[in-house]
Amino acid sequence: MGSSAVFTTLLLCALTARCSADGVFWHVTDFHYDFTYLNGAESGKICDSQTAGQPTPNDPGNWGDYLCDAPWRLINNSVYAMKAIEPNPDFIIWTGDDTPHIYNDKMNTDVVLAIIGNLTDLLRSVFPNTQVYPVLGNHDYHPKHQMPPTPNTVYNATWNMWDVPNWLSSDVMNTFVNGAYYTMQISPGLRLVGLNTVYYYTNDKVTAPTDGNTDPAGQFAWLEGVLQQAKTDNEKVFLIGHVPPGFFERYQGKSWFYPEYNRRYLQIIAGYADVIKGQFFAHQHCDSFKLFYDDEGKAVNSMLLAPAVTPWSTTLAGVGANNPGIRLVNYDKNTGDLTDVSQYYSNLALSNMQGSPLWGREYSLRETFNLPDASPASLQDLLDSFSNRSSDNFEKYYLYNSVSHDQSSCDGSCKVAQLCAIREVDYDKYQDCINAATSGAKTAQVSTLLSFEIFFPFVVAAFGLAA
Ligand SMILES: *[C@@H]1O[C@H](CO)[C@@H](O)[C@H](O)[C@H]1NC(C)=O
Ligand SMILES: *[C@@H]1O[C@H](CO)[C@@H](O)[C@H](O)[C@H]1NC(C)=O
Ligand SMILES: *[C@@H]1O[C@H](CO)[C@@H](O)[C@H](O)[C@H]1NC(C)=O
Ligand SMILES: *[C@@H]1O[C@H](CO)[C@@H](O)[C@H](O)[C@H]1NC(C)=O
Ligand SMILES: [Zn+2]
Ligand SMILES: [Zn+2]
């Protein structure tokens, strides 16, 4: 931080008597409001999620069902829980996916916009004086995922909803209506960049890379420009987005980005690792993180993946459901350094039995894992501890990965998929990681010098898999 920034901070301290550098913000995501949800008492139509591949639950609860998207009652309760737990965050980030997982023929653009409007109204009424930074998810468009890299009714109408005090400022209209991305200064020295990474999702067929099109809506070039300017201005940056790069840790080999876009995203992070202080993403509905390395193998950046409010069990085989979660992030206002993450949740099964949700803290990175902060170096220490057999950190992490819904244990290929997804965002390196873990476990018994020197220590160090 430059001396003028220090001076400004001191001056603000003197004027406002708020000298603390401790900052805090909410990250909330993936509400997936199912407007068709009715309680079990009302027979017939219950929740519409079964139309997207799930069986019909027999007796969906008042507060939601693990086979359904979220009823309004749960969504409303989650936002009021945020208010009860931390009523004065510096800001809120809201990373999209507002509509339910139902077939396109049951949706249309008006319904998408009505739901975005419902959630906008709720956040505004519960947090009328709080700055909200939203982005759109792949379910915030009709037909779902097919976001065009050009102006359209959804960006336009959403812009009109979000161009309100404490939300998007009018100077970001141009990038928002053209591509649904923007940048705004959070505070002196700290900048937010809201990305539309739905463009990079392989389900978005209108943005598939071609010879003539490698940068949908010009977002990559724009992002590099913003990061370069931030570097020049000595600002730090928080990146927020919906669909993450890399792999899904609960499903081996499952990635979201087109390979070209994954590479480009990684290159940009590597080029500006000293400017970017945090990446806050969503979409997987699970609680995890990803590390980004420099050429020497040092962790220089991280991505924190926040779990969903919807408990919906995905149709991806074996992945399962989650409890509803909301997340508080602590950071240093002067440096942008992340100091802690506290995950809050309510146990949905218990909520339905008790008659109302009870929200509590599930874990905090600092307290639960005994870390000094939430920096990339600390997250690397956490990842290393996942291979320490005397530590139960991985077991805890794996429980929290489903927001304490999945109580099973995870070893063998389940654990390999988890660790490789955290460690390798690059597609080739991820495959090497999977291969090394798998073949390494076999070749460890083969006493060739090669397998011993290369695979055995790697497997022991990275995974603790060798018998
Ligand atoms: C939303 O939650 C608040 C706080 O619990 C409650 O007072 C209000 O009635 C709820 N509204 C709806 C529509 O559920
Ligand atoms: C959502 O918005 C629509 C359209 O404005 C409205 O009719 C409906 O009552 C809203 N639902 C909730 C839960 O606020
Ligand atoms: C966006 O909305 C404005 C009015 O608010 C209208 O004039 C314009 O044509 C719209 N553009 C698109 C692409 O829908
Ligand atoms: C492994 O975990 C145990 C228990 O937390 C701890 O005492 C030990 O220092 C750790 N070992 C390494 C190599 O970090
Ligand atoms: Zn989602
Ligand atoms: Zn999504």
What attributes does this structure have?
467 residues, alpha/beta, Purple Acid Phosphatase, chain A, domain 2, 2 domains, six-stranded mixed beta sheet, 12 strands, 35% helix, globular, disordered C terminus, binds 2-acetamido-2-deoxy-beta-D-glucopyranose, binds zinc ion
**Average pLDDT number:** 90
Cα gyration radius (Å): 22 Å
Q: How many DSSP helices?
A: 14
Beta-strand share of residues = 15-25%
At CATH level 3, the topology of the largest domain is Purple Acid Phosphatase, chain A, domain 2
- Cα separation of the termini: 48 Å
Residues in helices, as a percent range: 25-40%
Q: How can the largest sheet be summarized? A: 6 strands, mixed
Q: Which residues sit in consecutive blocks of at least 5 with pLDDT less than 50?
A: 443-467
CATH superfamily of the largest domain: Metallo-dependent phosphatases
Q: List cofactors, ions and other ligands.
A: 2-acetamido-2-deoxy-beta-D-glucopyranose, zinc ion
- In the CATH hierarchy, the architecture of the largest domain is 4-Layer Sandwich
